[in-house]
Amino acid sequence: NLTKALRLLAQENLPDYMQPATYTFLDTLPLAPSGKMDRRALPAPDAISQPAEKVTPPSTQLETDLLAIWQKVLSIEICGVTDNFFELGGHSLLAVQFISRLQEAFKIKVPLTQIFADATVRGLANWMQSQEAQSAPAEKEIIKAEDLANAEMEEMIALLSEEELDALLRAEQEQTNE
């Protein structure tokens, strides 16, 4: 198939975002009276709305949610989690729109370069999960430090006499009233 051969050649020689989304074969190119190609007379590409050869369905809720945003931004109905954003007709402006909607929906900061690095729903979902996993230990450390501070405070309070506790409570109450 000539389309597959052209797609392979483009993949070998061009970055993802520069690869053509569709290939349209013409018997002759439309010419203007000057003899140059008439770009306005070229037929509109129709393969953008065609599904990929095999549509891979989402396997997680995150992939399902990402795919819904993906389809809205690209204005397509059928695509899978392994379909490439740029092969489906995406470009840099749509990538910005997708990232904006993604950040709004998931409250996560996503660098624009990430869509160029992970140009599939599955790739972005995996990246988002890795970001979540990396931030989770930091939150746990904060909680552990807070628990430790509370435990130390409880130990200190246990060592105080009733008179000392009453004096501390009165002092705290006086500060609150001021």
What can you tell me about this protein's structure?
57% of the residues lie in helices and 0% in strands. The chain is built from six helices and no strands. Helix 2 packs across helix 3. The radius of gyration is 29 Å and the shape is elongated.
Supply the key terms:
6 helices; 0% strand; elongated; mainly alpha; 57% helix; 178 residues
What proportion strand?
A: under 5%
Shape: elongated
- Secondary-structure element sequence? HHHHHH
Q: Which oligomeric form is depicted?
A: single chain
Catalogue the unreliable spans. 47-52
Overall pLDDT level: 79
Cα-based radius of gyration, to the nearest Å: 29 Å
Mind summarizing the main beta sheet?
none
Alpha carbon gap, first and last residue: 84 Å
Helix content: 55-70%
Our count of helices gives 6
Secondary structure category: mainly alpha
Strand element count: 0
Summed up, what is this model?
By secondary structure, the protein is an all-alpha fold.
How are the SSEs ordered, and which strands pair?
Layout lengths: L1 H12 L47 H14 L17 H15 L6 H5 L3 H39 L2 H16 L1
Helix pairs in contact: 2-3, 2-5
